[in-house]
User: Fold these one by one.
Assistant:
Number 1:
Amino acid sequence: MTQSDKIITRFAPSPSGYLHLGHAYSAKLNYDFALEHNGEFIIRIEDIDHLRCKTEYEDAIFEDLKWLGFNWQTPIRRQSEHFEDYANALSKLDDMGLLYPCFCTRRDIRNEIEESTRAPHLGPKMGPEGIIYPGICKHLTNSERDQKIAEGIPHAMRLDLKKALKLVKEPLCWTDLKTGKQTADPKLLGDVVLARKDFPTSYHLSVVVDDHIQGITNVIRGEDLYYASHFHRLLQFLLDLDTPTYDHHPLLTTKDGTRLAKRNKSITLKSIRKSGTPPDKIDKLIKSYL
Ligand code: GLU
């Protein structure tokens, strides 16, 4: 399926915790946008991480969304049922010579960074989402790679950004609903992991593949994913996928400026529901955190 004239939005939660008010805000923006444009609102369950995702959370997501008054088409797409789509995308990038295995543990990366900070001119490169992977495994020889694989050392697959960027001949742009034309700067995130050690894809890879397959025309999601969008634009180019229009909405925060998070129990939709708050009070509650 490709993009059509019909507006299609999606709310794509991960069932790794209970939804909170911020999710309700995001879901509502997607729902209302689709409704206003006579479009379609889709729910997608992003459950590739089998260690963190639980049925209990998934059940609660549906209860929360029903309580908020949403309705949606079924069956819904569950990422854990589509690993083949992600494997195909990954093998396309591999065939293009753009991937390399990374055997690093978090500790390896930390050690490398500590080493490099001893020589300050070589200090760690920082991106908007923290330290950029310092490329340790990029420099392994083929036989070193083969040996590690033969030893059964688990590995992730990373995108070789430098090689990928050589294929980009003109600026990669997208339209952001409020801020207009954006030019992607994929360097911001470095050699991103596209297949993790514990499961054979990643958030970044799955999300661009799914948005394309599902014909999503408008991705409305939090500002925290603005830099991810820069990288997603590159993946869309490399994999020849559609680029939706984006909208990055502000995040809900407490009075001291802390972002609402799944671990903060008091603002989960489940607890708000259980406390007897009627769903029509949610908009007001959301505004109080904006
Ligand atoms: N599963 C992601 C999350 O819960 C969705 C991100 C996106 O909308 O692309 O944050």
Number 2:
Amino acid sequence: MTSQTTVKTLLILGASGDLTGRLLLPGLARLVATGRAAGLLLVGAGSDPWSPEQWQERVHTAFDAAAETATDAGRDALAAMAKSTEYHQADVTADGPLAELLAGLEGPVAVYFALPPQVSQKACEILRPEQVPAGTRLVMEKPFGAGEESARELNRTLLSLVPEDHIHRVDHFLGKATVLNILGLRFANNFLEPVWNRDHIAKVEIIFDEDLALEGRARYYDGAGALRDMIQSHLLQIMALLAIEPPATIGERDLRDAIAAVLRASSIKPPYTDSTRRARYLAGSLGGKDIPDYAAEEGVDPDRNTETLAEVRVDIDNWRWKGVPFILRSGKALGTKRKEAVVTFRPVPHLPAGFTGRDTPNTLRIGFGPDTLELDVDVNGPGDIFSLDRAALVAELNASELLPYGEVLEGVLTGDPLLSVRGDTAEECWRIVEPVLAAWAAGKVPLEEYRAGSGGPAPE
Ligand code: BG6
């Protein structure tokens, strides 16, 4: 399949950085290999004095991997992009270099800020509207701002340069196939929507337990922690998709309006000792590897008390969800990887007397990678016909041929902001977590501990 992108040039700032090598180029490569970015030019810029060969090597590492499974046409597209790509050394926080770069590129240009947030912010602040050619798209990585006020400030800066639908705030979870599958599951099945509310659902959990530790990311992570890193962005987005009202279309306006409405109704309520938990890992072992205390990891300042596991209960105060807890949890260095949303239904109002065996509330599990759906139901088990037993109806969900970053990039390149976080939503997500961040910083919620490789802090 080929499609014309509305963007002619993808300019990656921070091209010599970790994000570009690890996620962005592999995502782009798979997209190019499908033929869906025909004619796109790739330009990298970074503060490092890289030679053209160094950039070529980086591009080839990602592109060669994608070429292995590509068609002949896909390989040609990758080769064409690799041949024409350029690298520019530029300090984009200085007045001039970014504007000069933009002026010299074939437009429309999508500028991908694969840079630390303060650097991206500075680069945007220094740009003047007349230096940004019409049609330019600005692509911002998370975290978007450092709080509600700073996100608002950043939104103002960006809006002085380009219109909202040309701003792409990246949340790569919105590019995960499973998350998009939630919409199909919820809105294409008549048996589900009538029970998708407080009358029938007891709680919703969104769990993202990782079996990875810090992985050398202290510089970023120690200033962020699990609440900012995972919950403020990714998990609130998943929650919103699980909770939105049925939109008329899945066009960007309808879907993003629905997401915004849910998030506006959401909050984490005090006392935070009841509605939140935070914890930090101690030395342990993960997959046979020894892991040091988080506090002893290189680059970590133990006095910051950065949490590596965060759990919050979000309340959505609207007709559909009033009183239903949405539990969002994410932690690092846990023994078992668990990435899923679990919807627990209320028990039946009356189980006819005479049944024996287990009667447990139904649960619907939506697994994020491997992408699965599992509905746990009570059925009359084998043997005694009066005895109830548990059965799981399991399905594998459609996996995208693109990586999450490829999905998001495709939206950027074709000018569709559907999979980008809208400005008001970015502010709203900070508004939800900010009181918790303040309470935690003030030491109002104890920082618990858990061993790396364990299941997390002991249940309360
Ligand atoms: C990133 C976080 O945004 O998402 C990481 O910064 C986290 O800490 C990652 O590990 C999880 O996403 P994925 O797609 O790697 O599972």
